[in-house]
Amino acid sequence: MTQDDPSTRLRRGAKLGGAVARQAVDRTVARARARTPEERTAAEEQAALRAADRLVAVLGSMRGAAMKVGQALATVDLGLVPEHALPAFQEKLTALTDRAPGAAFSEVLPVIEADCPRGAFADIDPEPIAAASIGQVHRGITADGRAVAIKVQYPGVDGAIRADLKNLALLLTVWRGRRASAVRTEAVLAEISETILAELDYPGECRAQFGVARRYAGHPFIRVPAPLPELSGPRVLVTEFVDGARFGTLESAPREVRDRAGEILHRFYVGGVFRDGEFCGDPHAGNVLACDDGRLAFLDYGLYKTLGPESAAFERECFRAAVADRGDDLVALLRAAGALRGDGPGADTLLRYFRLSAPWHLRPGPATITPAEVKRAVAVATSPPEADPPLRLPAAHTFSRRAELLTFGMIGGLEATADWHGICREWIHGDPPSTDLGREHAAWLARCGG
User: Region Disordered: what ranges (predicted)?
Assistant: First the structure.
């Protein structure tokens, strides 16, 4: 399967196009049959849910970019469905996070043999321990006896991804909503494309993971498995093997265990945005393991994003302005970033929007995060206050907000409690740590000279 194979593009495009065509007909028929505004609203919502079912079925069956695009649409609203149908639409698309068609070992073994040094592995378990849209992971033993995780791309997935991205513009052109969203569609699609193509760059992922693993070496509650570049190749990434329980097992753990895990998630994923200007763009349960020693292991750096000093400073300044009720300063920051143009919403409206879309960071004191609160925040974040032209965040910040919402989706699954605002102040204002984990982290930094 080559990236320029016309039959590949047409075949994969037909799957997506079929779902789009059925959606267009379904929505038109539903609207035509409605006799009142209430009936039209209900009909549009049902049509959107049927469309989500079709997209989940189509995208979930396709390796490559199609599935990744579906995952992105679960949290990045491009105005594809009516606002009242958005929460249910996004909930259905989140099913793609844990869904991927694996490949037979006989398909991926030639990739491993071609990319890795001869005799590198004494044994490879033919049963994958994880499967995703671009590749799958096998457990192996190196020739010198080390346990490793072998992440290997599916044969031909490069061509499949490029075919999907060429079809994506058509998908969203035909099925484009008229509702304003908080993002620039073209910029976000460009960011999605760049991000997905970056996931094919296993050497780049290896470098990113190496840097993060080195940064967190010896950390008291965070573990990042080190990659082994000498055993890896263009389509194979070999890392240390981490033995741990799936993250979902923590949801039934005692309260103190869930609270601790929630804070660790917050410090690693969200702290990366505010503190380092770097973050993992794909927080979800499949990328986190609970180790026996109490640490959480964080896997998968294919979507590792770097904001840069100016963008990271913008994130911090917006937070400071919102916390201090400095609405005029918030307006000025958004205008300077190009997010607000023309006659936009007033300062009070923008402050309210920020408070409702990120309540955990702007609400002092301990708070328990629930799935219902996260759903409300997602609904607000993707439905900005009216403005002409619309309020639209730069693409890079759209993805940092997406990572934050995904993180709090995981925290909400734990129903974890913490003073999230107090923790965030450590990164924004340089406040001293207010929790035991914060003090452990500070002591570790002092020992490392960080």
Answer: 1-22
